[in-house]
Amino acid sequence: MRTHIIIILTCLLLAGAHSHSQDVAQKLDEARSAYSSGDLESARFALQQALQEVNIAIGNEILALLPVEMGGMTKADDQDNVTGTNYGFAGLYLSRAYQSEDRDARLEIISDSPLLSGINALLAMPVFMGSGPDQKRIKIGGYKALLSRSEVPDGTVTYDVQMPFGSSLLTFNSNGIKEEKEVEEILGSIPVDQIVKLAQ
Fold this sequence. Notes:
Elements: H1 2-19, H2 22-36, H3 40-65, E1 69-70, E2 73-75, E3 81-85, E4 91-99, E5 104-111, H4 116-124, E6 135-140, E7 143-151, E8 157-165, E9 168-175, H5 180-188, H6 192-199
Antiparallel strand pairs: 1-2, 2-4, 3-4, 4-5, 5-9, 6-7, 7-8, 8-9
Helix pairs in contact: 1-2, 1-3, 2-3, 3-6
């Protein structure tokens, strides 16, 4: 058990040094102190908080990689969101919104999403059996993804794309983009390989 805690602390120290977060170093000091005094519950809580800070730093690095403009839409600065969460041990949620006069989109990354197993099962089928012609498999930067198209009564077309990688899920939702080809071109502008490397 002691070896596992030392390994975790070492990994967090490296991650903490990378993110230059004083909060991470402070939480690691708290964890060491609590562990030394035999207070394992407080040590675990401090480690969870340190991981939360590391996840926030990773989320901010991913946001910095995302394009400022895509498909004629620009990012909505006030809507960037990064949260380090505690699901079991720790997790990550981030989102960025894009807007123009006649269309909008949102990109999200969620670790340990409850949708992962279902989407992975659909994508792994040898013969894809979606819900109809408006759902199909595509590839984004070499990763399989599920694309769904729908149209509401006023004629607005929406696309939902879900791309699992590791234990995380990247989702892209758009309103007002009519052509699937344009959606795929927009998805091609997302630096998927770099995001996957950071998020895993």
